[in-house]
Amino acid sequence: MNSAAETYILPGGGASITALPKISLHDHLDGGLRPQTIIDLAEEIGFELPTTDATELAAWFESQSNSGSLVEYLKTFDVTIAVMQTRGGLFRVAREFVHDLAADGVIYGEVRWAPEQHLTDGLSLDEVVEAVQEGLEQGVVDAAESGHTIRVGQLVSAMRHADRGLEIAQLAVRQRDNGVVGFDIAGAEAGFPASKLADAFDYLAQNFLPVTVHAGEADSLDSIKSALFDGRALRIGHGVRIAEDISTTSEDDEGVYVELGRVAEWIKDRQIALELSPSSNLQTNAWGTELADHPFDVLYQLGFRVTVNVDNRLMSNTSLSKELFLLAEEFGYTLDDLAQFQLNAAAASFLSLDDRDDLIEQILTGFEQA
User: Fold this and answer.
1) What are the Adenosine deaminase domain coordinates in residue numbering (predicted)?
2) Alpha carbon separation from 134 to 129, 130, 139, 151 (Å, rounded)
3) Which CATH number goes with the domain that contains 306?
4) Does 17 reside within a domain?
């Protein structure tokens, strides 16, 4: 494998966060390309880039993504998607994606992407899914040869504005025995609630395929309600605006007392996982511009099933280890806290119960040895 991850050490603890076993639930394939790979693939197809220097290109992506707007943030994907239209391009990106997860200590990753955005070179929906799966599987083999054990699954996403929800849901079910573990909807939230894809979600429910829904990132609490009611979501992609449904009732020397609204109470009591992505949330102004203002810690302390995610490693110049390091640095988390985040993610993964139990055992063993 030709990949390397920066090593992050737990503040004050000495343990290597990078070496710890981790679960990645919210990680976009088209948001995790290596800059040099973009340059190589762009040259092959004659696509013009802002720069052909890998370091400068990485900086360009991060700068463009720091707009404070999800709509502007999403425009950077015009570049990555452009170089992911051929079977070879999809294979390479997927293979390297696994290399980079393994180098970051990830033992299970769910890779989400939207097949409908990768058809301009003449491939069919099934062919692009198969190309990505071949790349993911080769990446797993490569990782094993380098001493890393990792599993991956595809989360097939429908673009919520494109009116192809049912078609993509049918694709996901058709490919469920070829690496697809679940379904998602992505893209601009405002004006495109889950209810607009009701037929897709009905079909998925009838076929028992798990669903996560982007909600509560760039739209209000109503988007989370729609994800739960219309989408039958088992997890919420981001969901940071669930904090709007939590109100402070009083405060004294012993602490702050809060009251949960109906939606927040439902998510907490039923342990519906929140796929929080702190750095990305700050970039898109989903909730504030400083990590100290992010509701991650409040949700964790209140008992929500919080998980830590990267969203888009390229755009946020991040990794799962870096996100955990930043949270530990800001909120004083210990090794036990980081373990809990991974256990939350393992329990929320779209694997069988036995496979989830295996992940939990790997996490407990890895953290005990740290």
Assistant:
1) 21-364
2) 9, 6, 9, 13
3) 3.20.20.140
4) no
